[in-house]
Amino acid sequence: MSIHTADVDDRSGGHHAGARPTSSHGDERAARWADRLWSAVLAGDNHAAVDVVGDALGAGLDAEAVLLDVIGAVQHRVGVEWAANRMSVAGEHTATAINDRAIAALPTGRPGAPRGRVTVACVDQEWHALPARLVAETLRLRGWQVDYLGAQVPTAHLIGHIHRTGPDAVCLSGSLATRLPLAHRAITAVQAAGPPVMTGGLAFGADGRYARLLGADAWAPDARAAADRLAAGPLPRPAPAHQVIDDLPHLGDQEYTMVAGSSARLVRDTFHALQERFPFVRDYTDEQREHTAEDLAHIVDFLTAALYVDAPEIFTGFLGWTADVLSARGVPVQALIPGLDLLEEQLRDFPRARNYIGAGRDALTTRL
């Protein structure tokens, strides 16, 4: 069951990560500049990318449109191209670095009196920082004082920063659904420290359903919407301090806790079972064996996240997206099914987990 995909944390687009497509309120003139920036990205040309920013501004595009409708649109395209196997992981990393450089080329005026102070950060273990940076830069352009903390901020450090700076609001970004348990801890900790929390990013669902489930005070689908919401008035004050189980009573069945706590064993035992039942797996190269173990780990991670929020669609959605990625790389979809069967055997005492795996297998079977 060697899937041979890149590590999911390097996946910048598609179902789980990467900058969102630009909103419907973008500047239609940006398309030609996005095409030019895309050419610079493909060429790996930092100087050309900076020139695109300057030329677009000189042609009358405002800085926010360049940020979101040019740079943001190109970053989204990077993710799409990676998923379709038209861009390597190295190419994706290069493109992201060039887009970061393009953002740095935007003018940063100094407003007089700021509208207020906002902290923008990625939740712990979330490495996809560009969506959060788009939010931070949009807020700066609109006159806010912004503390941008970047990728994977440990919650304890985030709370320490909040106590030192006293922001009016905290914006938390998450791209991968596997970060939802950590996001929940961050949301409740920030709220206990005082400021309200706005969340954004693909991890929280296309409609923000997981943001609401985890008790966030607000949710925004993109950078413009986040800035508009903050401009509309203060976010609602957080509810009184409460426990995780208050938001997610289904965790009382202990399935999430037990599966999360045994994830390493589940991956190991499932991999050993693959070797025993499918002799060809024993002939895998070291690289193939490593990929297979990583693939199983990603499957367990997304199953665990689905159990946390009681949302099987997180697991089935991940499998469907992975199937599309596999197909683009010439790997048959059925390569996923033996691992699911063996994982289900390991989880015979966990009804929710078995139901999710069954739903995932059924969804994959319809693609055969």
Distance between the termini: 16 Å
Order of strands across the main sheet: 2-1-3-4-5
- Give the biggest sheet: 5 strands, parallel
**Which bin fits the share of residues in helices?**
55-70%
Separate helix tally:
16
Rg from Cα: 22 Å
**β-sheet strand percentage:** 5-15%
Order of helices and strands: HHHHEHEHEHEHEHHHHHHHH
Rounded average pLDDT: 90
Shape: globular
What is the fold's blueprint, element by element?
Layout (H helix, E strand, L loop, with lengths): L29 H14 L2 H13 L4 H21 L5 H16 L12 E6 L7 H12 L3 E6 L4 H11 L3 E5 L6 H14 L3 E4 L8 H5 L4 E2 L3 H9 L12 H4 L7 H7 L1 H15 L8 H24 L2 H17 L8 H10 L4 H15 L3
Helix pairs in contact: 1-2, 1-3, 2-4, 3-4, 3-5, 5-9, 6-7, 11-13, 12-13, 12-15, 13-14, 13-16, 14-16, 15-16
Report on the structure:
The chain is α/β, with parallel strands linked by helices and about 375 residues long. Helix content is about 55%, strand content about 5%. It contains 16 helices and five strands. The protein has a five-stranded parallel β-sheet with strand order 2-1-3-4-5, with helices on both faces. The model is unreliable at about 1-20 (pLDDT under 50).
